[in-house]
Design brief:
The protein has helices at about 1-5, 20-30, 65-75, 105-120, 160-165, 175-180, 215-225, and strands spanning about 35-45, 80-90, 90-95, 100-105, 125-130, 135-145, 150-155, 170-175. It is of the alpha+beta class. A hairpin with a 4-residue loop joins strand 6 (about 135-145) and strand 7. It is globular and about 70 Å long.
Length: about 230
């Protein structure tokens, strides 16, 4: 993906990520005078995993394959998972009489993915991501409860931004919706509305600088037990 995004050339025939085409759309918008852009796309990509080793059957035009032959045809092409992706560049909060506004950063897109998982009733673990095309130290990888990768979010690598002509600190995310929707729905509504007032408690902790926030949150949750919301 990094090679695709830094080359600035044409897109491949079968895209393996929505960002390879979505970032082209963002670049086109900035080339036409846009100052702030927030775009999203939901669509199919082609997976490079478990590619078939033999070509599929071919039939003459006008022939109607049987159900068994159709299964052979579908099995001979790459899997096409359904992805959802977005890119934000410029202001996340616009300036006005209320203040100077705020430019989008990695925390915005990381929060988007967290909220998508939460509204679906799924828990995700988060860790730092340093692979292409992400900025090392400003990107996150999301893992589902079954160990599968949900997706990534964060700031794009400076080289990607430079070669595409995007504004500095452009952020993006991409998740696998098929993987998310395949998870068991563990949401329960029993006791969702408490008859007691909320009791808020601030906690201040001193930890090692390299301790992931996800590990700290999991430790607090485990220690608090059922009393924690």
């Amino acid at each position: 993906l990094l090679d695709t995004l830094t080359a600035g050339g044409g897109a491949p025939l079968l895209r393996t990520t929505l960002l390879s085409t979505l970032l082209d759309v963002a670049t086109r918008n900035f080339g036409r005078g846009a100052k702030d852009v927030a775009l999203f796309e939901a669509g199919l990509v082609s997976s490079a995993a478990d590619l078939p080793t033999t070509p599929g059957p071919r039939y003459l035009p006008g022939y109607h394959p049987t159900a068994e032959q159709l299964e052979e045809i579908y099995a001979s092409v790459p899997a096409q998972p359904y992805h959802f992706a977005g890119v934000v560049a410029g202001h996340a909060e616009f300036p006005g009489v209320w203040g100077k506004g705020r430019r989008a950063d990695a925390a915005d897109v990381i929060d988007i993915v967290r909220r998508i998982a939460a509204v679906s009733g799924d828990e995700v673990s988060v860790e730092a991501e340093r692979g292409a095309p992400w900025h090392p130290g400003r990107a996150a990888k999301f893992t589902l409860a079954d160990g599968g990768v949900l997706g990534y979010a964060g700031e794009l690598h400076p080289k990607v931004i430079e070669n595409l002509g995007l504004p500095a600190r452009t952020v993006a995310f991409e998740i696998d919706l098929d993987a998310l929707l395949a998870q068991a729905d563990l949401r329960t509504w029993d006791g969702a509305l408490s008859t007691y007032p909320v009791s808020r408690q601030d906690v201040a902790l001193v930890v090692d600088a390299d301790l992931p926030a996800q590990t700290l949150a999991a430790t607090l949750t485990e220690g608090a037990g059922d009393d924690l919301e």
